[in-house]
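Archive maintenance. Older records in this collection stored only the sequence; we are now back-filling the structure field for every entry so that each record is complete. The fields below show one back-filled record exactly as it appears after the update. Entries are processed alphabetically, and Type 2 DNA topoisomerase 6 subunit A is next in the queue.

ARCHIVE ENTRY
Title: Type 2 DNA topoisomerase 6 subunit A
Organism field: Natronocalculus amylovorans
Length field: 370
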Amino acid sequence: MSSESQSQTQTPEEKAREQLIDLAAEFYDQFAGGDIPEMKLPTRTKSNIEYNPNSGVWVYGDRTSTRSANSVRGARKLLKAVYTIEFLANQLEEDRSSTLRELYYLSESWDNNEAHFSDQDESNQLVEDLEIVSKVTREDFHMRPEESGATLMGPLKIKEQTRRGEREIHCQEDVGEGGYQIPNNPDTIEFLDHDTDFVMCVETGGMRDRLIENGFDEQYNCLVVHLKGQPARATRRITKRLHDELDLPVMVFCDGDPWSYRIYGSVAYGSIKSAHLSEYLATPQARYVGIQPEDIVEYDLPTDPLADSDVNALESELSDPRFQTDYWEEQIELQLEIGKKAEQQALAARGLDFVTDTYLPERLDAMGVI
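Back-filled structure field:
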């Protein structure tokens, strides 16, 4: 069998393990050749993040840095990488999984004290480094974050791969009011059927519950995705799949403040932290349907004053390529002028049904979604 044919028949886990072993073999070959072992990575700083206007997402630039064993600090980093590679390769061979938090603590059991992680940020970053150099996601390494709890609810039927075999689930009829919990790796989900007209990504749990209690998902054939604040990778991945594979419009419903605008930005364009996965996670076609500064004025919503940090964040967004459109510049400048911010739940000042009976239908109609 040719290597190309073999690659096509491999599972994602087999490919991930092979990539890890190849990376370890590179270190061995460097040793054997009398070279100082090293690993090259994109420079992971804000100055090396570029907005790609063609794909509409954030990506790393051309600058690279080298992790080399020519210093004690560099040697320790490579030692930790080798131990982590061994752990991940064994984990995949045994068909096990672990959390990022467990990896941090597991290093305490490694026989070389120099390989122990000083904190979880260090182990998290190393996993991200291995993603970049191996071109394999941590999900295929069987690494997962602590439970995100993000859910979706709506007229979608899926097939899910579990340790107990396949199961079919309708994300309205077969789940409780809490909805279907998004798994760590949404690529294990197969979309079977749907009556969905659009996807509504909602920042807060309170507003998500309001939409479900008011029957918004049923009335408008809407799939409600709870972002749970800054969305986890799994949430962004399934949102992208829903758009790309089912051709569903994606709307993002957030609070009216600069930090929530960045939540929208991470869904639509990706985040600096995961720039190496932007094309895998981001949905550039996503549209913002959250609280706008003009809503604060038009509906006289209850507000809080902008803090200095809010003002600084808004001014930063004016120079952010993700927000350099006529719409965003107009809204951000208005917000700086009025000096106020408002939460989604502020719409309740006009009644508990206002958001589902008036606000969202009017906004979505004006945007041509319903």
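Update note: The radius of gyration is 23 Å. The mean pLDDT is 90.
Entry marked complete.
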